[in-house]
Amino acid sequence: MRNTILVIDDSETDRIIIERYLSQAQESFEVICYPEASSLEGILKMVHIDCVLIDFNMPNGNGLKCISAIKDISPYTGVILVTGFGDEKLASEAFKAGVDDYLSKKDFSQSRLTSIVSNVVSKKRIEREHHNANAELELLRTVVDNTPNLIMVCDPETSLFITFNLALNRFLQLPSEHIKSKSYFHVSQQFKSTDEWYEFVETVKKAGHYKFETELTRGDDTLVPFELDCCFSNVGEKSYLLFSGMDISRLKQVQHELLDLATKDPLTQLRNRRGLAEEFKRIYKSTARESGEVCLALFDIDDFKQVNDQHGHDVGDEVLVQFADVMRSLVRRPLDIIARAGGEEFIVIISDGDRDALVDIIRQIIKKAPNEISPKVTVSAGAICVKANNVELTFEKAFKIADENLYQSKHKGKNQANFSYDESI
To answer: Is 176 in the same domain as 317?
Structure first.
């Protein structure tokens, strides 16, 4: 790499000697010579100069006056003051003014000149690289602190925070000195024990990068869903876990809204039939563990076509909404499910330890419907009630049996329910 040297000396002879010495040196120097400093500012702004050799004695003043201008315009350009006489006081003034070295023409030789210039150029290059590295680190830290994503570095042995960005301060609503005494366990309930933490560390180490979803505890104790990416990094002889993550609460909300649109009946605001097989399976397993009863009932509004024909479809729609409200008023437990199967058919999935209680809910719906719906209608139902840990039952099979029982209710005169129990399956 060629280094550009600017020589400012009013002596043509000295300029020629300096240029010849530097041009013949083993180092690659490109030399620019000027007899006076009037063009110094323009040169420094237009050309990258690695080092300036400036004579102390100049026609319009001494070279020390130019030092501050050089430092202001090009702070990582080296400056060597050259003088025709050696003087310790002058050398002291030169170094105070900011020169990087001092050269007396009395000691002038090619080896001394090239050695001093090379040392100054090398020194200023290191300073410049160090400054650039610090500036890049400062810029990177600014970017990291201003990103809305959380960035956390933890000790894999203790899970304590080593460093983090300001997003974590904002999220926890705590100053940095408080967060530094905390660990990943303080912001997440993801791990119930240190053994689980160490298993996680091993998983990340093997995977290189490990992406997962979890909930983090905000400063106000609310839980916020996050997608985190974790990697295992070695810096020197020390290992660290680096977490970076984004708040996905809005994404989860959109997903929930889309799921609602996909699984909700727009007229009655009940669930539709989508996904009921999985829900039935989940409830069935849960109830089996408690040795409880599960009941699936299929309801149908009697003579619904006549309602539409006599009163119009708007009234028919209102009847459907009113019947949905009747079911809601009687089927209220968290695990209970009410769904519109399609048309005037509805599905109810309920569970309890008491079979009679489940049967009673089905009968109450049939009894209450004519009193709550206008114009007055009756409903029929077919149901199956089984002890979940006694019988293997799928949603499809339960629905088929309930549908057959609904047919029997219609055939027997409507406005009633017909049941099957595990004893008959």
So the answer is: no
Q: What is the pLDDT of residue 108?
A: 80
Percent of the chain with pLDDT over 70: 98
293 contacts 349 by C-beta, under 8 angstroms: no
Q: Could you report the per-residue pLDDT of 130-188, keeping only the tens digit for each?
A: 999 998 988 888 888 889 999 999 999 999 999 999 999 999 999 999 998 899 999 99
As given in the structure block, the two tokens for residue 295 are 């009941």
Could you tell me how many residues make up the chain? 425
CA–CA separation, 30 vs 283, rounded Å? 84
Q: Which of 73, 103, 130 is the last residue of a domain?
A: 130
Residues 351 and 414 placed together within one structural domain of the fold: yes
CB neighbours of 90 closer than 8 A, spacing ≥ 6?
56, 83, 102
Domain that holds residue 307: 264-424
CB 421 within 8 A of CB 401: no
Rounded Cα distance, 350 and 284, in Å: 10
Give residue for tokens 């330890």: 353
Distant-in-sequence, close-in-space partners of 9: CB < 8 Å, separation ≥ 6: 15, 18, 33, 35, 53, 54, 55, 82
pTM for the whole structure: 0.53
> What integer pLDDT is reported at residue 334 of this predicted model?
81
Q: With left for phi above 0 and alpha for psi between -120 and 50, is residue 117 left, alpha or beta?
A: alpha
What is the spatial distance between Cα 66 and Cα 43, in angstroms, rounded to a whole number?
13
